[in-house]
Write a structure and sequence with these properties.
about 270 residues, alpha+beta, Thrombin, subunit H, 12 strands
Amino acid sequence: MIRAFLQFLEKYQLLIFFLILELIAFSLFLNRHAYQRTRILNSSNVVTGFVFNSYRNITAYLDLKSSNEELVAENIRLYNAHQSDFFQFSQESADPNRFVYLPARVINNSVSHSRNFMTLNKGRLDGVEVEMGVVSPSGAVGVIYSVSDRYSIAISLLNEQFRLSSKIKRNAYFGSLHWNTLDARYAVLEEIPGHVDVQANDTIVTSGYSSIFPEGIPIGLIEEVKLNPGSNFYQLKVKLNPDFQRLDYVYIIQNRDAFEIQTLEKALQND
């Protein structure tokens, strides 16, 4: 089977190379034109999803042993864990059963642009909606940005336009976490006051101050502590838990109370 596949690649290598160049050019165009990207993503999720899913299936076959081992380990972990402590929710947080987790697979992913996205193999027919959170087994990775019937696209945490409300687990001080586009392994946490006790290796988790993510989902560890020049706020370098260059299976989070919360907040803004 592998030999046949290699013969196929050899026979059609020029066509495959041409298609790869076309995809690269198309990706660069989308990365530089926000409005066109939104329109195209919304209208072509099905087509691109099919292409990426087919490619993912081929590569998955060649790495079947490794994928099966990961699936078995993950299934065992899920079997032995209750949803309420899946991400070790805070005992003081709201009822974790209001959050529903939908498994999905990453069939396309980018980490090298300033605005990165990932394509998932679940869509509207599976209950996926815009602004649902996306997590990996090791932590938060993004938010659903666009949805078709069978596929969805998530804006990655590795996107300069994405900000995540986060807090220091040890003392509950919260701030805004964002990616500075320098390294896929790190992000920056800001808005933590300078008088707060902050230490290297402090754990950073989601604050729960939104209808997207529950409180307490892991994000990473503080690696470097420094004050912003001319400011009384920290700029904390955070090493991210998820390895964005190896994302495979993720979970889409549905908050059953999201509509009620968003309706109340919008009513307040309109007063």
